[in-house]
Amino acid sequence: NAGVTQTPKFQVLKTGQSMTLQCAQDMNHNSMYWYRQDPGMGLRLIYYSASEGTTDKGEVPNGYNVSRLNKREFSLRLESAAPSQTSVYFCASRTGSSYGYTFGSGTRLTVV
Amino acid sequence: RKEVEQDPGPFNVPEGATVAFNCTYSNSASQSFFWYRQDCRKEPKLLMSVYSSGNEDGRFTAQLNRASQYISLLIRDSKLSDSATYLCVVNDRETSGSRLTFGEGTQLTVNP
Q: Is B105 on the interface with A (CB under 8 A)?
């Protein structure tokens, strides 16, 4: 099984450009999550989807939008990238609230 | 106050040493607890869940004290391969689902 697959792995954007980070899981998990990780800040939740058809804001949703396309896929969109969005982005999924996450390998995004 | 607070570290120990990490959480209604391990420039990976009765997995022992809102991880007979950042993780229930909250992590280096 591939688990959680994120694309792209690396990306450089110019300020103001837009892009979509893709995430797909093949474990039939109900819940999916987007986190960003910055030095000294730990992992912070951007958005999550408890089940197909629902999405909710996390701690740091400003500047981002998400789409739960189907049970497998959960995408994160930056409409107008800013240097403050330079970070490592992790997608994660899990089958239920008593379980831990399985993470993707991350997307390293630099906004210049 | 941070929702999940960990020992700031870093910890540098010789091979074979016993090392303990401590963590406190602020939400008394938190339901599930985990320790994750994160290697440099990699995604976090689930190390073990933490149960109220305490649990052990080989050289690793996790303890939970709900009354004190305290979680610990003990690593015995440290190996070079244990060098990583250890993340304390708490599951918090929200009205629209639940999510994991991560501590900032404690870095461990095991030296030969």
A: yes
* Three-state secondary structure string covering B37-96: EECCCCCEEEEEEECCCCEEECCEEEEEECCCCEEEEEECCCCHHHCEEEEEEEEEEECC
Task: Judge whether B23 is closer than 8 Å to chain A, CB to CB.
Answer: no
Subunit contact B104:A40, Cβ cutoff 8 A: yes
Q: What is the pLDDT of residues A35-81, one digit of tens each?
A: 999 987 889 999 999 889 899 999 999 999 999 989 999 999 999 99
Q: Which of A66, A39, A40 is nearest to A53 (CA)?
A: A66
Q: How far is A14 from chain B (nearest CA, A)?
A: 23
CA of B97 to nearest chain A CA: how many angstroms apart?
5
Residues of B in contact with A54 (CB under 8 A): 96-97
Token pair 């709900």 is found at B66
Q: Is the pLDDT of residue A1 over 90?
A: no
